[in-house]
Specification:
rod-shaped, 341 residues, signal
Length: 341
């Protein structure tokens, strides 16, 4: 759109106020000659005409009437203000910034009470909106954090399975394993603890284990309930430190997987939840085995409880066991024949 009809609101406001000023001046010329005004009277009046901004002229008009209510130009200024102030207020009343500008310009203006009331309402509305917005952001951040905590349980278990199903981690001292194994196992907190293996293996063998605690939150009867998954990575090594067997285990670990997936509590007497967790563990183990060893169906072996998965081929063996008695851990054990050197 172009032409006169496209004049901006500010330009239209300025034109309207200029017309109001012109009308007041014409009427003033006929009422009181400038020659009758005192120096102070004229100086105050002049400010209503020469101030650089509209706000400055309006403020000067208000000040003039306060100081010179019977001044030589009082009628002119009063007429100007009576015409200009409603136009100015109509342009400013829609926003908090506009209302604040009006009150700063005309603190004793004709619309001060309405402006004050409107400004307070807008401030309350903004404050309420800010609080609601902040609460929404905090809630979203909390939910995102909780989702990430739950996702980490699945990711952590899958990552440890992949690390130790890689053939490069076997046939050499654990300290010489690839960075993808040794860094998270030995150099990332919590540090592993090592102890003699005793009767579990040949003399000189040792077990090095680290336990990772992963807190998360689930819904239990409509309320948030804290949970913690514990994953222990236990490496049985020979006298030279070479891995013989790796066990990845934890108390109710498979159940914690289902709770983390569904974000709901799985009670001890909830068989469906328990079965769902076992299925998740089997899915993760199959995926890791397929990625690092083979996805050939012939790798699968017949199983009998408490074993829930047995994969074996190309020198790698993975067995997943679901705890069947109190005090037992859910566990996945891995052995891999080292690569030829």
């Amino acid at each position: 759109m172009s032409g006169r009809g496209a004049a901006a609101p500010g330009l239209r406001l300025a034109r309207a106020l200029s017309c109001a000023a012109a009308l007041s001046v014409l009427s003033g010329c006929a009422s009181r000659p400038a020659l009758l005004a005192s120096h102070d009277d004229y100086a105050a009046y002049r400010a209503t005409r020469v101030s650089r901004t509209l706000e400055g002229r309006l403020a000067a008009a208000s000040v003039y009437l306060e100081r010179h209510p019977e001044g030589a130009f009082a009628a002119d200024v009063r007429a100007y203000l009576a015409r200009a102030e409603p136009i100015y207020y109509a342009a400013k009343r829609g926003t908090a910034a506009g209302l604040a500008a009006y009150l700063a310009t005309l603190p004793r203006g004709a619309f001060r009470e309405d402006a004050t009331r409107r400004l307070r309402a807008l401030v309350r509305e903004r404050s309420s909106g800010d609080l609601l917005s902040r609460a929404a952001r905090e809630t979203d951040a909390q939910l995102s954090r909780q989702r990430a905590e739950r996702a980490r349980i699945r990711e952590e278990l899958a990552a440890w399975l992949r690390r130790f199903l890689g053939r490069e981690a076997w046939g050499r001292p654990l300290a010489e394993a690839p960075a993808e194994v040794i860094v998270p196992f030995s150099l990332t907190l919590p540090s592993p603890r090592c102890a003699p293996a005793g009767e579990r293996a040949a003399p000189g063998a040792a077990v090095c284990a680290k336990r990772i605690a992963l807190p998360f939150v689930v819904n239990a009867g409509g309320e948030s309930a804290p949970r913690q998954a514990e994953i222990e990575i236990s490496v049985l090594g020979d006298a030279a430190g070479r891995p013989i067997e790796v066990a990845i285990r934890g108390p109710d670990l498979f159940t914690r997987l289902e709770e983390a997936r569904s974000a709901r509590e799985v009670a001890p007497d909830d068989p469906e939840g328990r079965i769902g967790g076992i299925a998740l563990a089997v899915e993760l183990a199959r995926g890791a085995f397929a990625a690092r060893v083979s996805g050939d169906p012939s790798c699968g072996r017949q199983v009998e409880a408490p074993v829930v998965l047995h994969l074996e081929c190309e020198g790698a063996r993975l067995v997943a066991r679901a705890a069947s008695e109190a005090g037992e851990d859910d566990a996945v054990t891995i052995t891999v024949a080292p690569a030829a050197r």
